[in-house]
Amino acid sequence: MAQILDPLPPEQSGKILCCYVNATSKIQVARISNIPNWYFERVVFPGQRLVFEAPVEAQLEIHTGMMASAILSDKIPCDRLALNEPSSYELEGSEKASDSINKKTIAQSINTRTEDTTKPLTIAGFVSVD
């Protein structure tokens, strides 16, 4: 589940589970600064997925690392990063929903050919003989 180092303030009632993916080749810092009495800042490496809980009104700031500095490159409302979690009602009504995460295809299968792919090498009109 989500890694919570700094729990949400007790006055925050509505929280959502969010996911952000660093699709760049640079290190990023994800920060939420618009929630009073709460500190959230994480380093997100290239290709890494960050899963976290946040208040519905939170905004995730993405700071992209440059040489000896970081530039604010994006502000994303956390409600746009929300993961759709099945409710307990949906889980009771369907066994498929309870294990749907484990059955998603993560990678496509690799196409392989079984026929012989060895061909003689031709160099400037000459054919090699083995």
UniProtKB/TrEMBL annotation:
Specify one Pfam family.
DUF1830
Q: What is this protein called?
A: DUF1830 domain-containing protein
What organism is recorded for this protein? Fischerella muscicola CCMEE 5323
